[in-house]
């Protein structure tokens, strides 16, 4: 038996080594431009992995700010518990501890990892297809993507990724908002999905989908367009002696990603607030943060109704509730996501980059 165990361990070790060698060979072939069998499928998988890792890392890094943004967006104007970024984070720490700062992050990552993977991959495919059509129409085989075309590719990627993972985003919002005073507790993403489906129906899983679609066009579209255009400008104008993409440092890419995130979230933020409020609609066991003491929760018949009631009851400024923590969050989040994506693809040996 002992000898069999040794043989088994040896075989397993040899298998692991073989796998590593094969991956290394695939990466080498990719860098050299040689198309090995299954290269296309492997490249797709690596691209999806890179996008997923980028989303998970970037979102976890800013999880406390993400939760605070949610709470500020949906809290009732007559039952204010969170008055700002510093006060809000301190209040969560004092009342719920460290776990409170990261509440909902597991569910968030369960959503953002596939969302980010699909989003980055969709952008690559959409930009390639748009560039091909653009070259066919102009008759210029050397034509490159313009900022407007990048915006279109980013918008397509955002809509595809958001629609594919929207139910998870919806229940993630509820899990993030609930606290110890909530009447009903969701135990996790799958429990929340099944509970919402049973109590409120299938359509409830897509509450707020329309403002999400409208908002994702400028948000994701501008993120990709600004990031890629800034990089392109830095390379072509060579303001700092830059010659090619590999000369862009991590800090330079972080700066480009931060600028992209700032522009995108500022334009789309009001739609994000309305989306969150619509997602909370119909939640009869919502916490007092949302309903207020002795008050019923506001119901919305649609996106326009949500805009109208929010502005009428709380003023125009309510459309920007949580903007400060979101701004503090989104700059490093988007920057980290773009840089992580490119770094992971470099490590995995995928030659195709979003810049291409």
CATH fold naming: Mitochondrial carrier fold
The secondary structure category is: mainly alpha
Shape: globular
Low-confidence stretches: 1-13, 33-37
Give average pLDDT, whole number: 77
Percent of residues in helices: over 70%
What proportion strand? under 5%
At the first level of CATH, what is the class? Mainly Alpha
Largest sheet: none
Give the full name of the CATH homologous superfamily.
Mitochondrial carrier domain
What is the overall number of helices?
Answer: 12
Number of domains: 1
H and E string: HHHHHHHHHHHH
Task: Supply Rg.
Answer: 23 Å
Q: Between the first and last Cα atoms, what is the distance in angstroms?
A: 55 Å
Second-tier CATH architecture: Alpha/alpha barrel
The count of β-strands is: 0
Outline of the structure:
With 356 residues, the chain is an all-alpha fold. Helix content is 74%, strand content 0%.
What is the topology?
Layout: H1 2-32, H2 39-61, H3 63-74, H4 85-101, H5 105-138, H6 147-177, H7 189-200, H8 209-237, H9 250-280, H10 288-291, H11 303-314, H12 323-348
Helix pairs in contact: 2-5, 2-12, 3-4, 3-12, 5-6, 6-7, 6-8, 8-9, 9-11, 9-12
InterPro entries: MCP (IPR002067), MCP_dom_sf (IPR023395), MCP_transmembrane (IPR018108)
Protein name: Mitochondrial adenine nucleotide transporter ADNT1
Keywords: Membrane, Mitochondrion, Mitochondrion inner membrane, Repeat, Transmembrane, Transmembrane helix, Transport
